[in-house]
């Protein structure tokens, strides 16, 4: 088996594999468009000795917000294998190689949408993003309230305008994408329907909603409301459609407070486990992560287990400065061996748990109670003090 990047000549072979694995068929016009957009350098394949493609994945160079800072992220998508090549280790080798490529590209974190959470947990990814899906009957929509601004429906989608609002909203969460103009045009604004922007009293774009109305149902593609004023204005706009609708459906962040604000909060709600995340390069990631400040410098030892990225595997010192910057330093092999022989480390955890701590909003104390972190309780408390509480969200799919 050989793992290597695809070439332009592999478009048809890659498309046939995807169509088979994901059970779809592209129309000829869409096929031509996809061929024009095909970027073989973002496609990684496993080939047999005859050069036949056995398995493939797409590795997207993206950025996400983490604690209000943009981080380079490798997005994995389209993982597919021909049935006759399954259980030959193709995907395992592709994922291992993708981790090496991401590390080399400075992508310290990776995200994916799993077909099975248990499968990708074996390779170090962990569930980090949950979302809520609402279905709201017309009679349960929020009460209409006056605000000091105005709503304007866009005659033509304006990605620069929408991105101003989106960035303010998305940067409050961990896991949301930093969107490029290409992402807006190809992935967001290509959806059918309409968009409306809320302008506040200072005439600043302060919220937006994109949506489609069909068969007396409003499907909200995106709802970006960085302030409560924007939330009130946008939901009043939605409620003004009540004579046209039987129901509204929308997917929001897990911390969305809408039910509490409704006259009748017993709307249909579904909590959805959505995306998985993995720290690719723990040392580089920690050096960029904005930890909470403390009264003084502090340190602890971690033994991290990562069977698919050896650079993350072993004994580390995690040192915090008073201002919240930190360094994760791997012990030398001989020091690691002698340390572990002399005494147990302060804390031990696997790469999934570290990802859940820093990217999934899970508290150190709870992870210790659940048996995912073992070791000294004082060190658990130190971690909990130094990791700011954060919420996760992702409005996109890849």
UniProtKB/TrEMBL annotation:
It holds the Pfam family Acetyltransf_9. Residues 1-148 form the N-acetyltransferase domain. GO terms for biological process: aminoglycoside antibiotic catabolic process. This is Predicted acetyltransferase. SUPFAM superfamilies: Acyl-CoA N-acyltransferases (Nat), SCP-like. It comes from the Bacteria. Keywords: Transferase.
